[in-house]
Amino acid sequence: MTSMRHIFFLLFYLVGCAEVAPTDTSEDTDTDIPFEPLDGQGLLSGACGVLTEDNLSSSQAALFSNTLDFGTAFDEDDLTLGGQEVLDDGNLGGSSIWSEVFAFEILYRCERAQLIKTEGEITYQDPSGKKTDLLVTIESMSIGVSVTRAFAWPPEDPYTTEQAESLLTDKLADIPLSSANVSDEDRWSKQILHILAYTPDHAKTVQEVWETMDASVKGDTIVIVSATEGDDAFMY
Fold first, then answer.
1. 170: closest CA among 182, 181, 180, 162?
2. 167 near 148, Cβ under 8 Å?
3. What is the pLDDT along the chain (236 residues), one digit of tens a residue?
4. Whether the model pTM is above 0.70
């Protein structure tokens, strides 16, 4: 009888283990949680969490797009510390400071970028040569960020393929020049061309033109096109 009781308890134990196993497996699959943007000024949607170590170290170009909707009001108090630093430091001329601020904001909120230096802090071999706008780290890699805007006057007119091609050709040509000019102290491993687009249609035109461009023009640059919506007039 004692032997039968031992067999019974052994069978009971084995059945219990078999029932527990599927529960452990399902818990493993629950860890695959979508990458969400951090809170901040405006609602971010679209490509987020896409700048992995693999594509940051790749010799291939890539383009990602997202949208930043400011809604009905812009509040400077909602900027991140890095965004506020970009604003406070200013740039080296022109009216593009807000696009540089929000290029960083988007990279911080979506890619967890950390600000290393603003435009005036980056050092170069030739101070009169080509420069970039921001130096950040993403995935522990130093990344240069060149910022521009897809916008034309009058703003209500369609953004043409010719305008998009001119913008991309000029800005992509500057990327290797500033990369060659940066000092060893601030040398980055790759550059991002971050384009703030006046409308989603502007962004779509930029993407369509980029897809037709020769690989020799694109180089290894990562292009991020961020369409802005809502109360975004201050950006342009």
1. 162
2. yes
3. 444 444 444 444 343 433 333 333 333 333 334 578 999 999 999 999 999 999 999 999 999 999 999 998 888 888 999 999 999 998 877 668 999 999 999 999 999 999 999 999 999 999 999 999 999 999 999 999 999 999 999 999 999 999 999 999 999 999 999 999 999 999 999 999 999 999 999 999 999 999 999 999 999 999 999 999 999 999 99
4. yes
Strand-pair partners of 86: none
For the chain, the domains span 43-235
- Do 162 and 212 form a contact (C-beta atoms < 8 A)? no
One DSSP character per residue, 148-176 reads: EEE--SSTTSPPPHHHHHHHHHHHHHHHH
Q: How far apart are CA 57 and CA 72, in angstroms?
A: 39
